[in-house]
Every structure is written in structure tokens, then in C-alpha cells.
Design brief:
The chain is 47% helix and 12% strand. It contains nine helices and six strands; from the N terminus they run αββαβαααααβαββα. It has a six-stranded mixed beta sheet. Strand 5 and strand 6 form a beta hairpin. It is globular. It starts with a helix and ends in a 17-residue tail after the last helix.
Amino acid sequence: MDSQKNNLIVLGGAGVLLLILIIFGVMGAKSDPPSAGVTFDLDNVPAVSADDNTRGAANARVRLIEYSDIECPFCQEYHEELLTLVEDEPLANFSWTYRHFPLTQIHPNAFGYAVAAECSAQQNRFNNYLDTLVNRIRGDEEFDKDGLIGLAGTLGLDSNLFASCLNDPEISDAITAESTQATSAGATGTPFSVFEFDRAITEDELENIQGLFGSSTKIVLSDDSQKMAIGGSLGATQIREIVTLLVDPASENIVVPVSEGTE
């Protein structure tokens, strides 16, 4: 009888573990808050440049760099939050740069989706293609190579050029390089967000930012205090508060948007 009970306990425990693994595989990996057990080096995050896919205010004084996985549900939710800051209710002096960090071990389609997004950037349609793809995947659709090409045609891209681009090794190498940036910087999941400022933030400003999240949230700064990482996806309201803390309301508010896609 005891042996039967023990077997039931073991089977029950295995079932719970399997359920946890299934949930993790379906939901994706959400970035944990930076912890003492992880080494962060934000100097491994390149500054925002004209080669990036950026939207929001031109010459923004606060720039958010997101390393993201298109197939990750947490990233899809975060995407909607960030869209409110650059599309629905544009935030002055703020821009959003999208970089790729596909977690292929749990999201088998993520790398292919990233390649497709970058191929849309080659035709200056990155924002439209990415937003549509994220929205469709969030609605439980799945795309194979033909589906990605078909979506490109539906959105007005040259399907032949797009299809050819999907096989371009330089695109794959660029995505791998961005993933390496994220892991080298200390990312353990997606979305991984790094703020880049036009100046070093002060200790008082850092303390005020810390106050927005509470003492339990660890905030990581680069050596020059011009980059900052906060684990996990942030709310649009929190980002607005960070920008408000760092940008003098009396200064010029830049709201002119940057151009579509990669130039």
C-alpha cells in the first residue's frame, strides 16, 4: 500500500513538473529583474544608430532599446504598451529601438520571424510588417516561409525581393549579432530593455527612478551612467514617468517622428 502511495506521489510530482514546463514553453521567457547572480555589462549594448529600426521622437533624449522575441507572448504584450508611446499618444523626447533576441530553444519560429521582419526593413516597411506579424501571432496564427512571403505581398512589399532576402546569410548574421549583444549585456529572457540617455543620470535621478519601482527592483547602470537596465516588460505609464523625471519640462520637447524602417 505504501509503495502504491509513493508511486502516486512520484507520478503526481512528475505531472506538475511537466505542466510547469509546458506552461513555460507556451508562454515564453519573461526577463527577471536584474539580480546579484547575473553579470551585467551594458557597454555591450551598442548605441542607437541610423542602422537600427527606431521609431518615436527624432533626436530623442531618452531612447529605449528592446531586445525582443516576436513569438514571445510577454513581448507581444509589451509591444502594445510601447506602441501607445510612439503611435497612439506620442511621448516627447522618447524613441523605441527594436532589436532581435529570438529564444529558439522554446520558440522554434522566432528566428524565422526575425529574419522576415528584417527583410521588410530592406524595403522600408519594418514597422508595418512587424506590427502586423506580432498582432497576427498574438491571435494564435503561425506562419511558415510561404506565409511570411504572402504577408509581405499583402502589405505591399515586393514578394520576390522579400523571398530572396529570407535566404540572405547577412540578415541571419545580423540577428545573431543582436542576440549576442543581449546575452553579453546580461539578458536572461525577453523582453530585455535598456534605456540610453543623452547624458549621465545623477544619483538623485537614479533614486527617483528607483522609487517608481520599489527597493526590491534592482536597476543596473553602465559605467558612464548613460545606460540603464530594468528587467521585464514595463508599463507605458512607468516609461512616461521615467522620461518626465529626466527631461526638464521647460526644455524643448522633440516630437517629430523618425522615418520608417532602416534607411
